[in-house]
Amino acid sequence: MSPVIPIRSATSEACAPDITTERGQREVFCGLTGIIWLHRKIQDAFFLVVGSRTCAHLIQSAAGVMIFAEPRFGTAIIDERDLAGLADCNEELDKIVADLLERRPDIKLLFLVGSCPSEVIKLDLSRAAYRLSTQYGQNGGVKVLNYSGSGIETTFTQGEDACLAALVPTLKSTETEQKKLLVVGTLADVVEDQFRSLFGKMGLTDVDFFPPRRSTQLPTVGPGTVFLLAQPFLADTARALENLGAKHLPAPFPLGAQGTTAWLAEAARAFGVTNEVFEAAIDAPRKRAVQAISKHRPELQDKKIFFFPDSQLEIPLARFLHHELGMHLAEVGTPYVHRKHLDADLNQLPANTRVVEGQDVEMQLDRCRAANPDLVVCGLGLANPLEAEGFTTKWAIELVFTPIQGYEQAGDLAGLFSRPLIRRLKLVA
Ligand code: SF4
What we know:
The protein is α/β, with parallel strands linked by helices. The protein has helices spanning 35-41, 53-62, 86-103, 116-120, 125-136, 158-167, 189-201, 235-243, 256-270, 275-294, 297-300, 314-325, 339-346, 361-371, 380-388, 396-401, 410-428; strands at 19-23, 45-51, 73-77, 109-114, 143-148, 180-184, 207-210, 225-229, 247-248, 304-307, 328-334, 355-359, 375-378, 393-395. Bound molecules: iron/sulfur cluster.
C-alpha cells in the first residue's frame, strides 16, 4: 500500500515569486480585533482589555452582532487619573477582576489584553496576571493570562497569535512518542467538526484542535505531536509548540478544494494513510467543493484582483483565486510573510506575481490606481475612499469572521469575492 502523495506541496520544486518589502505608513487594525473570533471559540474564556475608550469602541463596533448575547469581553478603562500612579491602576484592575469573577462564575480562563495605553504607561500585565492567577487559580479555579493586542505591537490577526502563544505554556506536556495530530488556529465549530469527521474517515482519531471550545479541554503536547496550521498568522504559537517538542507539518492552507486536499494530504502522509483510504475519505466532499466553486467562475475568471496587506491570509487566498477561479493577481500585499509557513502557498503563485510585505500606503494606492483592478481586498479604512474612486472592494476583515476553511465552505469563500462584483454590476445597470 502506498502512502499518499498530495498535490504539489512545500517540498516540491517551485519558483516562488520574489518578495518586496515596504516600510511606511500602515493602514491596519490592531490585534484587539482577534477577540471577536476568539471569544466565540473558547466559550468559558473572558477577554478583559486594559485600555482606553477607543479600544472599547473598536471591539464593540467590530462585534456589533453581540448585542443580543452575553458578551465574553469587556474593557477596563484607563482614565486620565490612572496615569497618575501605577499602584492605583493595579488596584483598580484587581477590583474590576474581583467584580467580574463574582458576577460571572462561568469564567474559567481570563485574558488580560494589553493595549496601546497600557503599554504607554508601562502597566505590567504579566505581573498582574500572575498575581491574579495566584489569587483565583487555586483548586481548578480561574486561570489568568495576558497578551498584547496593542496597535504598537500587533496587527489585526497577530492578536490571535499572541493569545494562543500565551496559552501554550499552560498545555500539559507529555513524554509519549505516540503520534497525535494537533490542528492549530481558530476554526468555526462547524469547520472543526467537518475536519474531525474527515480525519476520522482516514483512521486518524487522536486529533486535537487548539484553541479548544473550552479551556478545560486543552490538548497535551509532546514529541509525538505533529501539527497543522489552520491559519497563516501563528508564528509565535508555532514556535512555542515546537519548544514543547511538537513538529510542524508544512502544507498549503485549507482554502478551496485544492488547498484543503493538500492540507489534509500532509496529515495523511505523516500518519501513513494509504492513497485508497485518503481518496475514499475526500472524494465526495472534494467534488462538492469543486462544483460549488465553479458556480462563481463566470464572475471571477480573468478578473484582476489587488490585495492590500491586512489579514495575513492574502497569499493563500491569492493561490486559491488564481488556481481555482482563474483570477489575475495584480498585487498581493501582506503584513508579514513567514516563509516556512507560507512557502507551500507562495510556491504556487505565478513567478511574476508582485508580492509585497509590509506597507507604504500611499505608494501602494498609486500602484493600485495604475493597475486598475476589478476587485480590491483591503481594510475598512481604505474601502470607502477606494469605492468613492470607483473601485469595487472587499473588506479583508470578513475573511477572518466568516468560516472559509475546508471543502464545505469553498463555495462560500468564492462567493465572498464574486458578490461585490455582482453588486457593482447591479449598481451600474
Ligand atoms: Fe487603538 Fe491601540 Fe486601543 Fe487598538 S489597542 S484600539 S490601536 S488605542
